């Protein structure tokens, strides 16, 4: 642990276990919000009228999530096992969590892959997803299950995988979509 991690962790976790409502919100954001975000994303994909856009958004998210959480994060866990804050500092977390390796955050590596495909489907919802992921990140530090650098690492991996999938596997589709958007904007 370094001073950056410790100072931000102490600031966020220092107010834990003082107010029931704040602890409850942290538990909701850290544990349950991701399920709702995933379910709503699937609903948004199903509601999308453009068949190609629907298939593209869903495949984009699934491939990015597999690469980010299923491959990259697991490889890092195999080679680098960082203790979680509640283990390293011998404190009680706000919610139950296994003492598995902490870096990178698996939650961030998985759920942050939703941000950009959701923004592709609907920009307002994409911004809300980015804010929700930020809330989830703060809640996981508050809950003593992650260090700040774990969160940053998970987000960087997720966004890297998301952009990588878009530009490597769907480059032709992405370029075609951008051309259509430019044509629509010039017509207006």
From TrEMBL:
Q: Which UniProt keywords apply?
A: Membrane, Transmembrane, Transmembrane helix
List the SMART domains hit by this protein, alphabetically: acidPPc
Positions of transmembrane segments: 20-46, 58-80, 100-120, 127-145, 151-169
Tell me yes or no: is Aminoacyl-tRNA synthetase among this UniProt entry's keywords.
no
User: Which residue ranges does the record assign to the Phosphatidic acid phosphatase type 2/haloperoxidase domain?
Assistant: 58-166
What is the official name of this protein in its record?
PAP2 (Type 2 phosphatidic acid phosphatase) family protein
């Amino acid at each position: 642990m370094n001073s950056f991690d410790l100072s931000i962790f102490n600031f966020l976790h220092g107010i834990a276990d003082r107010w029931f409502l704040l602890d409850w919100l942290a538990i909701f954001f850290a544990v349950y919000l991701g399920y709702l975000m995933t379910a709503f994303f699937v609903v948004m994909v199903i509601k999308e009228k453009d068949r190609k856009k629907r298939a593209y958004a869903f495949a984009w998210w699934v491939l990015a999530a597999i690469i980010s959480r299923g491959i990259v994060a697991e490889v890092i866990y195999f080679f680098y096992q960082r203790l979680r804050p509640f283990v390293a500092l011998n404190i009680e977390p706000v919610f139950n969590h296994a003492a598995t390796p902490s870096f990178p955050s698996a939650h961030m590596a998985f759920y942050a892959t939703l941000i950009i495909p959701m923004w592709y489907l609907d920009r307002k919802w994409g911004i809300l997803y980015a804010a929700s992921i930020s809330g989830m990140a703060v809640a996981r530090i508050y809950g003593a299950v992650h260090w700040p650098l774990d969160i940053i690492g998970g987000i960087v991996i997720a966004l890297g995988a998301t952009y990588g999938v878009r530009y490597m596997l769907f480059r032709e589709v992405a370029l075609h979509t951008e051309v259509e958007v430019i044509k629509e904007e010039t017509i207006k």
